[in-house]
Amino acid sequence: MSPAFGAMEVEHYSKGVLLEPFVHQVGGHSCVLRFNDKTICKPLIQREHQFYETLPTEMRKFTPQYEGVVSVSFEEDEDGNLCLIAYPLNGDHDNLENLDNSDCEPKSKLLRWTNKKTMLLENEKISKEWVRQHRKEEKMKSHKLEEEFEWLKKSEVLYYTVEKKGNISSQFKHHNPWSMKCHQQQLQRMKENAKHRNQYKFILLENLTSRYEVPCVLDLKMGTRQHGDDASEEKKANQIRKCQQSTSAVIGVRVCGMQVYQAGTGQLMFMNKYHGRKLSVQGFKEALYQFFHNGKYLRRELFESVIKKLTELKSVLEKQESYRFYSSSLLIIYDGKERQEVAVDSDPEDLEDLSEESSDESAGAYAYKPTASTVDVRMIDFAHTTCKYYGEDSVVHEGQDTGYVFGLQNLIDIIKEIRDESSE
């Protein structure tokens, strides 16, 4: 296992690393934070930590890489802004070189999230002096953005138009309502506990979106059962009700969150778990179709890779004796950035001057093959996972997690249906 911190200058290390919201979080209730480009962190839950430290070798390619544990505390400045800071755990000082932290910026240049309801970001290009000079103007803007943010939190499906100027990926920062909501709640919890506690353990995990310029992320809640063995009767009843009222009970999978870039309109589409719970089986299928459609055409080149990886994961889980992945999610991720398309029977050099119209999928005289696109399939969220190797668990299950496997098979079948129907 690689230790928590690494490759930092002594001065930077002594100050810790300022954590940012992880803007590609589309589901879940636990706050996920960005440590650096390739690493995220989330509050340590003992059961999940135990899973990552003991998971079977064959499952590692289907989970984020575990990279250690850090201590997280928060500081509050004179304006009431809370900053979450990550520090190495005591005793980790001798092993700091293994985790790449070269892209972390000095604390003064990083974004700082306020715990005020406005959830505004201090723009990294604006000095504190400028902010103070324009305090009255900023307060007016704050009030307007506060109303906008409250609307964002209530919107189950949201379309946000990306400005033509600037890098698309950089504009995700301010407009993922789910990550904003989770971050705000985490700050509030930590502030309320400040008198009793200001040190929290977080685990470091691989950032699965780091390889993509414009990550399209689908978060699926897997299985026919969501409550853990240790759930209270109230929690158990609540989770059973959610499963019965959603596609979880019928097909063993439901939409927990979605983020898709629509190249056709230049919009970002966000779907949250509340909308996902309302979907019928047909609605779930339509949501999957929407996830693989970029507003111009269906990303058919992704289907075979997704199906192959889901099938392989299903085979792996069928062999896992006594594991139960209650309330775990499955992520499907691909790049929304449009790829160059190549004519199947043509020299690529001859296609340079083709018009947009002739390269469209509707151009009957040509058959176009999209260049290879990577797609990732990973399991996440193991706070309620159990297996016979966890000695303290009172309940020991036998055989495979049939509810999860059932959901995987139905997911595979539905994606195959979409693939086949789109090729007719």
UniProtKB/TrEMBL annotation:
Enzyme Commission number(s): 2.7.-.-
Keyword tags: ATP-binding, Kinase, Nucleotide-binding, Transferase
Pfam families: IPK
Annotated GO CC locations: cytoplasm; nucleus
GO biological process, one term: phosphatidylinositol phosphate biosynthetic process
Superkingdom of this protein's organism: Eukaryota
Enzyme class: transferase
Xref: Gene3D superfamilies: Inositol polyphosphate kinase
Listed GO MF terms: ATP binding; inositol hexakisphosphate kinase activity
Family affiliation: Belongs to the inositol phosphokinase (IPK) family.
Official protein name in the record: Kinase
